[in-house]
Amino acid sequence: MIKMNKVLIIITLLLMTFTWTACSNADNSGEEDTNSNGDTSVTETTYPLTITDDLGNEVTFEKAPEKIVSVSPGITETLFELGLGENIIGRDGASDYPKAAQDLEIVGDYKGPNTELIIDLAPEVVFAYESIPEDVNQLLEASNIKVVVFNPTNVDGVLENIKQVGVITNKQTRANELIESMSAKRTEILEKVKDVDQKKVFMDLGDFISVGPNTFINSILEEANAINIASDSDTPWPTLSIEKIIEDNPDVYISTYTSVEDIKSVVGIDVIEAYKNDNIIVIPWGTEEHNMIQRPGPRVVEGLEIYANTIYPELFE
Amino acid sequence: MIKFVKKYLIFLVIIICLATIFICTTIGVANISVSQTVNILFNKITSIGNVEGVKESTIAIIWNLRFPRVMLAFLVGGALSICGVAYQGIFKNPMADPFLLGVSSGAALGATIAIVFNISAIFFGLDMITVFAFVSALLTLLLVYNISRIGNKVPVPTLLLSGIAISQFLTAIISLFMIFSDQMNRVVFWTMGSLNAKSWNHLILILPYVIIGFIILFRYHRQMDIMLLGEDTASQLGVNTEKLKLVILVVTAFITAATVSVTGIIGFVGLIIPHIVRMIVGPKHKKLYPYSFVLGGILLIICDTVARSLINQEIPVGIITAIFGGPFFIYLLKKRKRGGI
Amino acid sequence: MNLEVLKTENLVVSYGDKRVLDCLNISIYKGEFVGIIGPNGTGKSTLVKAITNIIDSHSGDIFIEGRENRNISKKERAKLVAVVPQEFSIDYEFTNLDIVMMGRNPHIDKKNKIGQKDFDIVKEAMTLTNTWDFKDRFFNELSGGERQRVIVARAIAQQTHIILLDEPTSHLDIHHQLEVMELIHLLKKKRNITVVAVLHDINMAARFSDRLILINHGKVVADGTPEEVIKEEHLSKLYSMEMIVRENKILGKREIIPLRAIKELTEKKGINIHVVCGGGTGEKILERLKSLGFNVTAGIINEGDSDWEICKILKIPCVVAPPFSGYSNEDADKNRILINQSDYVLVTSVPFGIGNLLNLEVLRNIEKPIYFYQNSKIDIDYAQGKAIKLLDELQKKENFNYIQNYDELLQKL
Fold first, then answer.
1. In total, how many domains does chain A have?
2. What segments bear the compositional bias annotation Polar residues (chain A) (predicted)?
């Protein structure tokens, strides 16, 4: 019953928290690895190629994979950016960008890919996000399908992932171009926000659930030179009490769920700066903008720009 | 000593209650001194004194957040406890709690629908989650009652079984919604109960249900005593058992639906408080109702204070009540000094 | 005719397809103590439930003090009829005062307050039932009999004209059974309360009831005074057992003595046996032989002898002599005729004196097999050696056998 479910879900949430921290450690070692492999001067990949993914697993490729399943929206976008749209034979339900991606066959969502569908499609490689269940992973590998898991926790991680995808698929030139243009834009934004008076931001994912330390969104907020009021929390997805929100007094209130009216109707919220200065911004769930601000993919820099623009609009006039 | 406590029990409980309300209002994540808290409370309640120079946000935290939240916790804890007393009475079942007949699943389904379909509107100052949960909880009880009705009678075992069946069914539908939705976290957090972001308007919403409900329940205290001897005996002693059951079910339905729709599902309070109070004051409902109300209120105030101020973020209060309540209940079962469990 | 306070008319109550009460018609009059008896599962308790409207009747009517039952509200009915159920316990810690006070529930008005008047009534009821002393103790701390007295007090506090008892003593020991029944009887006498008691103990029912109603399969089988209802023809088939119905001389009431419910396997139909007994020596074997199906005769017995009474109850033909007198030759002739009609003769361990010596003498010329029960513990001769002498003579006969016990005899037959 409900009580039972609750316990299960709490346990799952706790486990997710642990794996999260565990993964961010693995991530560091992965970074070094990709760096050594990807010298920008080399543009052709030599096979057989062995890479280490963000979970620390070693994967060996005999040749550039031609049939690819992507169950991570960010990687789907990356593959299209690298001109590999034709090679994708399956995607997760959330991979909705670019438009061409929407015509691809859906093989489950990012939490639970459908192993039967994937094995039936017989791809050479599955690109997945960290939340892919371990047993799905093992099942696929047992069917001789390679699995590469990505777990970027910041913009650098996203860039590394793009580079790694480029290496695996032998599209290094295109990948390097993409990374360069992203980095250029990123530097431009960072330059703008560098000396600004830091503002305090409350990020509301719904019901005052916010983004804690070690989360992707937290890192982007940091890049945008904003202070995330939830960054001192103990968990990645803390529910903040109104009392804490009022106490921390954010200058900007970004919500991805409710309406501005809903937020304004919360009792006591009218004393925070964000309310007084009309700095409550809603970027609704499911919109393009919303995808940009939370999806670790090629558009992450645009997401960064949205944050910077939202928090410091005066810098972008 | 025990005699002394028994004689002045009511005063003792009132003093503890007032002390709890006060102490818990001074505790919270925001760093506000006790003297400031006293100053603000005193000024707001009596309009005497001076709060000039105190930060606006401090006043908002004490008067618009903490104090109403503490009072809401008191009201909800009390409401769930008296419903627990009433249910344990008519079902003659020590495991009965206010959510026995699926009111929690019903409310959860309503809330889930509002969350999943992102129904966002303000209805008399209330969000749609509250409204949906309230309506859905009432509909569920209506359904359970009608399924259980045989002629003009509602046998208790049938009521229990159909309550469980409907409850399971609704829970399955909720799970289904959750699978197809990105909003799983929010549904989960809702079902674990929370008093976060609740204030005077929520308090005022449930206050009439609780007050009127309490008065009606209390009116039937004698019949409820007799009901404990069994339905047949109660009937032979002139209790209109079918009417009594209907009254209790309707009243508790409104109380629990109102509280659940505001706070989500807060378990264990309605289960353990009646047992504890029965051990202290005996099985007569004349005392059970008021004492359970006050003690249930105190318990939820304490649990909610822990939930909101133990760490930097909110812990769903349902988790705290279960963590406190579970082991304590087992302890009571083991001890079982006097009957009634 | 007295006032009719409770009446059922063609009452039918069913559980599913099973008719538990089938066109039941009973009438109870004011001030009566009516016992309802009958085997288990014949609807006695169902009748109580139907009267208190806990179960719905399928058809037919119940009238309580002239009012149709289904038009009476629960509260009104509780002012008319109180129920004393089987002994029960409760899981909650109510004091006995609490329990008895619950009897005042139907009388509590809209103000919802217990007044001094209610308290006085409860006190009186508890005093009457001798329970006031433990008013502050918990109900479940009491013994079964004490609890039942508290429940009776509760019924009294209800101040009804009718009290229904549903096997009120079934879980009690004999002392407490009697105590509770006497209490109720006293109540009936003192307050002119009409009592309808469903009882499983027929003797208890016969002893306390003015009238008995025997129910089987939801129908009235017999209705009348205990003398009219307690008859073997009514009871033995219903309860499917063998029993003796007799007057209890001490109490002056009808009573039954249940004998056996399981029949012995061998049926001895058509075998005639004559028993020479007296002074109670034949009671046991007479009944046993009769129940096994033998055609039993006996004689000669003095009127008033306990063996004579058994013969009377069991309807055994016997030769009877006047009380406390010797046998006449006429009696001896009658006896001889009975013996000649029988296949076997049994002589119990009856002692022989001058008065009954003829019983022994008659055997001298009998050629039927004679079985003589030899009990060395009893001196059989009270006739100055005449009996011994006769016995010596009989021993010589070929058809004479000693037996040590009756089983030995039954095996031989």
1. 2
2. 35-47
Which residues in A have their CB inside 8 Å of a CB on B?
Answer: 1-3, 5-6, 9-10, 13, 205-209, 212, 230, 232-235, 237-244, 246-247, 249, 257-259, 261-262, 265-268, 270-272, 285
Residues C134 and C234 in one domain: yes
Asked whether the beta carbons of residue C102 and residue B237 sit closer than 8 angstroms, the reply is: yes
CA distances from B279 to B287, B338, C54, C78, C408 (A): 12, 7, 32, 31, 68
pLDDT value of position B1? 62
What CATH code is carried by the domain that includes residue A248? 3.40.50.1980
Q: Which residue carries 């009808």 as its tokens?
A: C254
Cβ contact A265–B183 (<8 Å): no
* Rounded distance between C-alpha atoms, residue A101 and residue A86, angstroms: 10
Residue B29, chain A, CB below 8 Å: the answer is yes
Based on the domain organization, do C255 and C370 belong to the same domain?
A: no
A88/A160 same-domain check = yes
The shortest C-alpha distance from B2 to chain A (Å) reads: 38
pTM: 0.81
Contact C/A (≥3 CB pairs under 8 Å): no
**Same-domain check for residues C160 and C278:** no
Chain C residues whose beta carbon lies within 8 Å of the beta carbon of residue B156: none
| Judgement on whether residues C26 and C105 belong to the same structural domain of the protein | yes
What ipTM score was computed for the predicted complex, to two decimals? 0.83
- Measure CB to CB from residue C102 to each of B219, B225, B232 and give the nearest one: B225
Percentage with pLDDT > 70 across chain A: 86
Per-residue burial over B265-295, b if 16 or more Cβ lie within 10 Å, else e, is bbbbbbbbbbbbbbbbbbbbbebbbbbbbbb
Q: Would you say residue A3 has pLDDT above 60?
A: no
**Any idea which fold B76-335 has?**
ABC transporter involved in vitamin B12 uptake, BtuC (1.10.3470)
Residue B106 sits at the chain A interface (C-beta within 8 Å): no
Q: Are residues A98 and A233 in the same domain?
A: no
- Burial (0-12, 13-18, 19+ Cβ within 10 Å), B31: exposed
Could you give the percent of chain B with pLDDT greater than 90? 43
Whether the CB of C148 is below 8 Å from some CB of chain B: the reply is no
Q: State residue C268's pLDDT score.
A: 65
Over chain C (413 residues), what is each successive 10-residue block's mean pLDDT? 84 87 91 90 86 88 90 92 86 91 89 86 92 91 89 93 89 87 89 91 90 90 89 79 79 80 66 86 83 84 86 85 84 87 87 83 84 74 81 84 81 74
Residue C342: CATH number of its domain: 3.40.50.450
Q: Do A60 and A28 lie in a common domain?
A: yes
> Residue C92: which of B151, B237, B283 has the nearest Cβ?
B283
Domain total of chain C: 2
* Paired strand residues for B122: B127
Structural domain that includes position A85? 2-189
- Residue A158's pLDDT band, with cuts at 50, 70 and 90, is very high
Comparing CB atoms, the residue among C74, C99, C154 nearest residue B240 is C74
Neighbours of chain B (3+ CB pairs under 8 A): A, C
**Residue C232 CA from chain centroid, whole number:** 11
Task: Looking at the structure, tell me whether residues A173 and A228 fall in a common domain.
Answer: no
User: Which residue, among B218, B236, B241, would best test binding to C if mutated, counting the most C CBs under 10 Å from its CB?
Assistant: B236
Whether C286 and C376 share a structural domain: yes
Which residue range is the domain that position C51 belongs to? Answer: 4-259
| Final residue before a domain boundary, out of A155, A189, A223 | A189
Assess if residue C267 is contained within a domain.
no
Query: Given CB atoms, is C141 within the 8 Å cutoff of chain B?
Result: no
